[in-house]
Design a protein that fits this description.
two-stranded antiparallel ribbon
């Protein structure tokens, strides 16, 4: 059965990004690299978790996760923008990007195609489920998109990478999210991060 898994790197105080994202500052007003040092400095130590993040059959992400441009896609920069990941993104599967502005699908090397969805979170998830087949769907961020899926009760599992840093100011993943009961499925401490995986416990469970 397909599960919907939200994956995100967070600070110890629950912040997943900062305000004022720009091309030069993709994480906004938080220290560069503070949430992802584990990925860049110690990739071999965290290979299994990095592989798990990109193991889904399809992905959903927000417009801010895809890139820093706002508004429609009419500007030259917006039209030419293909994401943060270069010519071959790591997903190798369909990615459904939430946006208010239509855009034709963007096919990349390695099997990744970005589809731009204007119908909201339910529409994007329905399309991702169809594309994933029997594999899981990952909610790949950013913070506001993942928060919307949590608020709507559409997430089955949380796969979090918690860095030992307190940011203080920024976008908090669980702000305005209703209370949830979680079952811890796994936890592993590495030198720069703690990997925790939870199942969301439903009332009917």
């Amino acid at each position: 059965m397909t599960r919907v898994i939200a994956t995100m790197s967070l600070s110890l105080d629950g912040i997943g990004a900062g305000d004022n994202q720009t091309l030069d500052r993709p994480m906004g007003d938080i220290p560069d690299g503070s949430l992802h040092m584990w990925m860049f400095r110690t990739p071999d130590e965290n290979r299994a978790e990095m592989d798990a993040i990109v193991s889904a059959g399809a992905y959903v992400m927000g417009r801010h996760m895809f890139g820093p441009m706002r508004g429609d896609w009419s500007s030259t920069q917006a039209r030419e923008w293909k994401g943060w990941w270069g010519d071959e993104p790591p997903y190798h599967a369909p990615v459904f990007v939430l946006t208010h502005h239509p855009r034709e699908p963007l096919e990349m090397a390695g099997g990744t195609t970005f589809h731009f969805v204007t119908g909201g979170i339910h529409s994007a998830l329905e399309r991702a489920r169809d594309a994933a087949g029997e594999r899981n769907v990952h909610i790949a961020g950013g913070v506001s998109t993942t928060r919307q899926y949590l608020q709507a009760g559409l997430v089955d599992e949380l796969m979090l990478q918690i860095s030992p840093v307190v940011v203080g100011e920024g976008l908090r993943l669980f702000e305005d999210v209703p209370g949830m009961r979680l079952e811890q499925l796994s936890v592993r401490a590495a030198s720069l991060v703690t990997h925790v995986r939870y199942r969301v416990v439903r009332d009917a469970d």
